[in-house]
């Protein structure tokens, strides 16, 4: 159960309860229209109240923003260890390994997914992923523990309040060493998986910076300004520097690395409830570290 509590301030004297729930606690109209029918979900000074109730300074308003029945299809929990980087009562921040999907694919019979592992860990059947990572991508990902928190997170996704930084090892060395890639992305015809650069597609923006370069590869810092499917992989391939190990947009070499060399390294966000700034990082995984000189700083 997730309860929010707010003490009515002098500036909120005379507000109807509905206004405080919508404006101060940021409960959406659709969620509130369902919440008000849940017994005991909305209280003023410990007593049930209608959303039309008039509030007075010092009143204690409590709202139960836990998921409502039917908010999310049931996901089968599975006991699988999670690498938890940070957690509180609203958010779960994970270090995702390579080789595991977020959700089970429609045409596969996967038994282990991030969704199933999270549901087992939280003891619930609902899953609210904020930033999705491809099966082969490692690193920081955020899960909201309720649909209420998930909606607040999604409002800041792809904004300055939610900033993601990736590390990638690409083939060759980009020139210039730093820059921006603005190439729209659309679906590849006749493919369920591939994307392509398409003038009629959705706008996509990626900033890149070369952190290290060798004779045949480079370590890049990537900052996406948008969140299109396969954006980073496709953008680097489009400028002639596909990720090492990228079998879809580059060249597969399982002896070098058995996946695209892409890692969600750092995530900064404004906590949706406390509104404090949160920064979480995940160390470079071993398979990508092996692509770089042993003595370089991989922090």
TrEMBL record:
Alphabetic keyword roster: Isomerase
InterPro entries according to UniProt: PsdUridine_synth_cat_dom_sf, PsdUridine_synth_RluA-like_CS, PsdUridine_synth_RluC/D, PsdUridine_synth_RsuA/RluA, RluA_PseudoU_synthase
Catalytic activity: a uridine in RNA = a pseudouridine in RNA
Coiled coil: none
Residues forming the catalytic site: 134
The keyword Zinc-finger belongs to this UniProt entry's keyword annotation: no
Pseudouridine synthase RsuA/RluA-like domain segment(s): 90-238
One Gene Ontology MF term: catalytic activity, acting on RNA
The UniProt record lists the keyword Isomerase: yes
GO biological process, one term: enzyme-directed rRNA pseudouridine synthesis
Main enzyme class: isomerase
EC number: 5.4.99.-
Pfam families: PseudoU_synth_2
Organism superkingdom: Bacteria
Record-stated family: Belongs to the pseudouridine synthase RluA family.
Function, in words: Responsible for synthesis of pseudouridine from uracil.
Protein name, UniProt field: Pseudouridine synthase
Originating organism: Brotocaccenecus cirricatena
